[in-house]
Amino acid sequence: MFELAKAMKNHNVTFLTQQTAQVYIDFKPYSSSSFRVVYSSDSPDALAMEKNNEQQAMSYFSNYSFFDALPYFIPLLGQMIISLLNKTIHILTFERFDVIVADLMIVGVPILCEKANTHCVTLSTSELPSILDFNLPNIFSLVTSKELTQITHRIYNAAFTMRLITKLMQKSASAFYTLFQSLPRIPGPFHDSFTPTNLLFSKSKSLKLVGMPPSFFTSSYSHHYTKYLGVFINETVVDNVDNDLTSWMKSKSRSSIIYGAFGSTSVIPLDRMYNLISGLAAFLLKEGDSSLLLAFRNTNYDTYQTVLKELDNDNFRDLLNNDKRVRIENRFVQQKWILQQNSVKMFLSHCGMGSSLEALYFNKSILCMPFSMEQFANAITIENLGVGESLFVPPSAVQSLISPYDFAKYTFTASRVIGKISALWMNVTYEKAVRLMSLEMKHAGGLKRAVEEIEFFVNLDGDLDRFTPFQSTLSLYQRYMLDLLLVLVVLPGAIITYIILKCYKRRRKEKTE
């Protein structure tokens, strides 16, 4: 969202976000008369509370299955959504905008835009295939598009989806109901915006910008209000700061560094950290020209230090303490700048969508170590696309059907780490697949195209119906040519059948006489 906001250089921008955004973004260089930052809460305790909620939510997802974690996560998500909506309503009461751009997760914004007579754009980092379309693979079932052409996998995909919906309703129906009941009812022009009728049946027109390549997941049916724009990266603003880290990286040869980062909230269990570090150290010993850069945040750095002390292999410990070949960062790093460097060979990632697409954009293959939520589906997709490998091994189809998307406790061995890194290091097939995905994303246009699409949408008064495919305007029976089938096939067939039967009966009667 912030990358897009910065790209709107020719416009006055009000950027509404949570206080936790300050952890990731330094807003001071961008504050000006044309760029205003507003926080959803002005309370002095807001930042600490939001950071605590974020840490608790991610910790819960790391220790429980996706669906067991939802009843806990949804109320926290609801607090965030409601605070943003309250602030939005307050601003809209006194100010007017040409367009509102909102994260797709913030439910109800298109309804507010309709009430305020303002154009609406929603932004999403991914567009998952509809789980209700059984002709598309349910990404949570881990069935691939190639497998879906087989009848056994089609049946499994449908059965898994029904099981998934059942479990979702059991676990989260009450939490979702509470969330929608608690949406703002502020006196004024927006008082009745979030009624159940509006939320379920509103036909508000909004432009949806998707920050991913259309071929990442199985391609679905295109819609003229949905635009796939690759990834929102502005390469021109990547800072090239001279410090110890940048000097260390510039001293390395081409394609020699394994770079690992695991997000700001992912928590690596001790056993997983031990096997990961052991595998990485063994690979570095085998490949003498390779180097390692790991960025650990929060408790992960402490876990790494514990593992370093517990390693029983002196060669591993000596290598990991060799700052010529291994560098461990316990602070924020300029990830975009790092991924741009030719010295980086591959990216060891938690497989959040943003980080994964950044790596592919900069032509880096990915070794996936997912932790929670959609990261497991992203990891399997990356593996199936041939742009990376995954340390996560999905359970059997039967086990997955019994406990859908329950992967939080998975494990891997040090030998698996060595094998996966070796495959990415030696096999040029991955490089070719990554290059093609990078070309697709860059061709999609990214930030520049997003700004153009928003301006075009506003200039057309928020109406893209002129681009509706003609087939979509037809009635259901016309779209599937049932009227033509009736007139040109069924009716003539019935007439011919009737004539044949009449002739047969007449001939039979003549023979009888």
Tell me about this structure:
It is a single chain. The chain is of the alpha/beta class and 513 residues long. The protein has 3 domains: 2-192 and 205-230 and 445-470, 3-Layer(aba) Sandwich (Rossmann fold), CATH 3.40.50; 235-444, 3-Layer(aba) Sandwich (Rossmann fold), CATH 3.40.50; 476-512. It has 21 helices and 12 strands. It has helices at residues 2-7, 21-24, 46-63, 66-94, 109-115, 151-181, 196-201, 244-250, 270-286, 299-310, 314-320, 335-340, 353-361, 375-385, 397-402, 414-426, 428-444, 446-459, 470-473, 476-479, 482-512; strands spanning 13-17, 35-39, 99-103, 119-124, 206-210, 226-228, 257-261, 291-295, 326-329, 344-349, 365-368, 388-390. Strands 9-8-7-10-11-12 form a 6-stranded parallel beta sheet, sandwiched between helices. Strands 3-4-5-6 form a 4-stranded parallel beta sheet, with helices on both faces. β1, α2 (21-24) and β2 (35-39) form a beta-alpha-beta unit. α3 (46-63) runs antiparallel to α4, α9 (270-286) packs across α11 (314-320) and α9 (270-286) crosses α16 (414-426). The model has no long low-confidence stretch (mean pLDDT 87).
